[in-house]
Specification:
single chain; about 190 residues; alpha/beta; 7-stranded mixed beta sheet; 4 helices; 7 strands; globular
């Protein structure tokens, strides 16, 4: 009986510690999108701030995933059609099992950038494909493990592309601390 109680207590402690430490935090829909930095196969480094005012799709996929293999050409075609309206699509391969050398021919054939490296809190949400959509204001509006088809993509993204690009904030006034000018005496 004591052994059973000790095992139950140990499982409770391990389970509690695991639930506190092991769960990753995901970006939250409806909140400002957390920053990220990606490096593409083309060697470009892109940050979220570089895409300000655009509608961004972060697509997490895997080479072994059948829905991903169907979705990637669809995303590429949609990017080709809507890039001129401010659409950005970044495709991130989720597994390290495929050497990057094997992905280079695919990266060269697609218009959407394939990502070699990514930093930030984004990752698949338990399954692939996973898509995150960030609107023109920088708010995360969608995060889901599901493949986009043309209709579901258009239903979500086209209204976002129709929104006006936000005006940039006015420049901050120049500091007057170092530029004091003499005022003529009356």
């Amino acid at each position: 009986m004591r052994v059973l109680a000790a095992v139950a207590a140990a499982l409770f402690v391990v389970g509690s510690a695991t639930s506190v430490m092991a769960w990753p935090t995901w970006p939250k829909v409806g909140q400002p999108a957390p920053d990220f930095t990606v490096t593409t196969f083309g060697g470009r480094t892109v940050k979220l701030a570089d895409l300000k005012g655009d509608v961004i799709v972060l697509n997490f996929w895997a080479t072994w995933c059948a829905p991903c293999r169907k979705e990637l050409p669809t995303l590429d075609a949609l990017f080709r059609a809507y890039a001129k309206y401010g659409l950005q699509v970044l495709a991130v391969a989720t597994e390290d099992s495929v050497p990057q050398e094997k992905l280079k021919p695919l990266a060269a054939a697609l218009a959407i950038p394939l990502v070699r490296r990514m930093t930030g809190p984004y990752h698949d949400v338990g399954a692939v494909p996973t898509n995150y959509v960030i609107d023109r204001t920088g708010k995360l509006v969608y995060a889901k493990a599901a493949a986009f088809g043309v209709d579901s993509f258009n239903a979500l993204v086209i209204p976002l592309l129709k929104e006006p690009v936000p005006e940039p904030p006015p420049p901050a006034p120049a500091s007057s601390a170092g530029s004091a000018q003499a005022t003529p005496a009356p």
